[in-house]
Amino acid sequence: MERICANCHAVLAANKKADWCPACGGAMTDRPELAEVETKAVPAEVDHRGIVLPRRHAVGGIITPQ
Ligand SMILES: [Zn+2]
User: Fold this and answer.
1) Does residue 24 contact residue 17 with C-beta atoms inside 8 Å?
2) Per residue in 40-66, is it b (16+ CB within 10 Å) or e — as a string?
3) Closest CA to 53 of 5, 10, 23
4) Rounded CA gap, 10 and 60, in Å?
5) Ligand 1 centroid vs 51 CA: distance in angstroms?
6) Beta bridge partners of 62
7) Which of 3, 35, 62, 63 is the most exposed place for a label (fewest CB within 10 A)?
8) What is the DSSP letter of 38?
């Protein structure tokens, strides 16, 4: 499971514990981790708030989660 904001869908780093979203103050909720090989192959980038940043495409741009 991973922690995701119900409001802005920010994903919280696995080693962070927060009841409220550091980005928008929304409620955090649990969801199953994405079972994609890519998510395991590329180490997650986490910002100073403990939010997992969106993975970027090799040629630039942000991949929008479905
Ligand atoms: Zn949020």
Assistant:
1) no
2) eeeeeebeeebbbeeeeeeeeeeeeee
3) 10
4) 20
5) 9
6) 56
7) 35
8) H
Ligand 1 center from residue 38 Cα (angstroms): 24
Q: How far away, in angstroms, is 41 Cα from ligand 1 center?
A: 26
Residue type at position 34 = L
List CB-based neighbours of ion ligand 1 within 5 Å.
Answer: 5, 7-8, 10, 21, 23-24, 26
What's the gap in Å between 44 CA and the centre of ligand 1?
A: 18
What's this model's pTM, rounded to 2 decimal places?
Answer: 0.55
Q: How many residues does the chain have?
A: 66
Question: What's the pLDDT tens digit per position in 17-65?
Answer: 888 999 999 999 988 776 555 555 667 788 999 988 877 665 566 666 6
Using the mean position of ligand 1's atoms as its centre, give its distance from the Cα of residue 10 in Å: 5
